[in-house]
Write a structure and sequence with these properties.
single chain, 2 domains, five-stranded parallel beta sheet, four-stranded parallel beta sheet
Length: about 300
């Protein structure tokens, strides 16, 4: 049984296989043909955090793959409160073929995977956002054609999205630089995994506090919100610290001429990214949003061995 909890759990071959599958599924879908890989299958979607892209993309993915999706709101389950995570996993496994969970604590999705008898997909946790990462690398592949020798620069908080980008880049042999303010860097344990993966693939990875150095000669510039859900009490302090890491036209000028700009959304325009960049010719933001659908189709088919 396969779970999909963090990109670091994958091999390079598996990462490439899922991306190749996403490309094939998207190509067939664009041609207007059906892809009923999951006919008769049901996805149970457990949400502790609200989401536009995760909810709609997984729901539509199952519909287009011939299956069905069941939405379970935070109030319906109260994961770990009204009922233990282990019991929820054991029960829901009797009803559905695969589970997607969007949670606050990564320990909850790990526990779901431990006790479930069906595959579990991490739709987001405080540690990792692998579904977003897979959509991101599908987008990079479409725009750049390959990963080797390409530089991905991330500006901002060392959060779950940055973690998935580090893991994905190093699995694919892409160079990765992250620029974060002091105190907001990726955790050393995450960086240690990144170093191991980079050693296997030949990626160059770097951490800095200098956003201008990070974006120099970048093929891809990526940013995310300065304050994630659950960090609202820190928002005002973060707004004072993070402005040097804003993605604007001056930073784009330091990157390669054909640089693309990425953001996982929702964006706080005027904070981590300017309107001119988000809506400009270098933006791949809405390609990313669309690719949540296609990448997640591939993840669902992969964990269920349905291809």
């Amino acid at each position: 049984m396969k779970h999909f909890l963090t990109l670091a759990d994958l091999t390079s071959e598996q990462m490439h296989a899922i991306l190749d599958l996403a490309v094939r599924i998207k190509t067939v879908w664009k041609a207007g043909e059906d892809t009923p890989y999951l006919k008769g299958k049901v996805l149970g979607m457990i949400f502790q955090k609200p989401s536009l892209r995760t909810r709609v993309s997984f729901d539509v993915a199952m519909l287009q793959l011939g299956g069905n999706a069941l939405y379970l709101s935070p109030d319906e389950i109260q994961l770990g409160k009204r009922e233990s995570v282990a019991d929820v996993a054991r029960v829901i496994s009797r009803y559905v073929n695969v589970v997607m969970a969007r949670v606050f604590a990564h320990a909850d999705v790990v526990a779901l995977a431990k006790y479930a008898t069906v595959p579990v997909i991490n739709g987001l946790s405080d540690y990792s956002h692998p579904c977003q990462g897979m959509a991101d690398f599908l987008t990079i592949l479409e725009h750049k054609g390959s990963f080797k020798g390409k530089k991905l620069a991330y500006l901002g908080d060392g959060n779950n999205v940055a973690t998935s980008l580090l893991y994905g880049a190093t699995l694919l042999g892409m160079d990765f630089t992250i620029a974060s303010p002091k105190g907001y860097e990726l955790h050393p344990a995450i960086w240690e995994i990144g170093r191991r993966l980079a050693g296997e693939s030949g990626s160059k990875i770097e951490a800095t506090t200098d956003p201008l150095a990070a974006v120099r000669d970048a093929d891809v510039i990526y940013t995310d919100t300065w304050t994630s859900m659950g960090q609202e009490a820190e928002a005002e302090q973060r707004r004072k610290i993070f402005p040097p890491y804003r993605v604007d036209e001056a930073k784009l000028a330091l990157a390669k001429p054909d640089v693309i700009v990425m953001h996982c959304l929702p964006a706080h325009r005027g904070e981590e990214i300017t309107d001119a960049v988000a809506d400009g010719p270098h933006s791949a933001i809405f390609d990313q949003a669309e690719n949540r659908l296609h990448a997640q189709k591939a993840i669902l088919v992969w964990v269920l061995d349905a291809n």
